[in-house]
Amino acid sequence: MGWGMMSRAMDSVFGPRTINVVDATPPAAADACGAHNKAFQDCIGHYGNDIGRCQAYLDMLNDCRQDSAASSASAASTSTFF
């Protein structure tokens, strides 16, 4: 009971606690795949929800993201820390 009262008192003084959501996409991957993402978004915008017409763009985007993740993982594993 003491902890709950203290938490409410702190919330009344400092305001309620908030949760911040951070995008987990690395900036390099977002920049590297920007052209593929734009092509896919343009296709979806043109054809609506007919994903079949845009599947090739989605496949290229997913391949780019996997390649970016693999290259950043290999770069991290090859770096040496002293």
Automatic annotation (TrEMBL):
GO terms for cellular component: mitochondrion; nucleus. Keywords: Disulfide bond. The keyword Disulfide bond applies. The keyword Disulfide bond applies. SUPFAM superfamilies: Cysteine alpha-hairpin motif. Residues 33-66 form the CHCH domain. One of its GO terms (biological process) is mitochondrion organization. InterPro entries: CHCH, CHCHD2/10-like, Cys_alpha_HP_mot_SF. This is CHCH domain-containing protein.
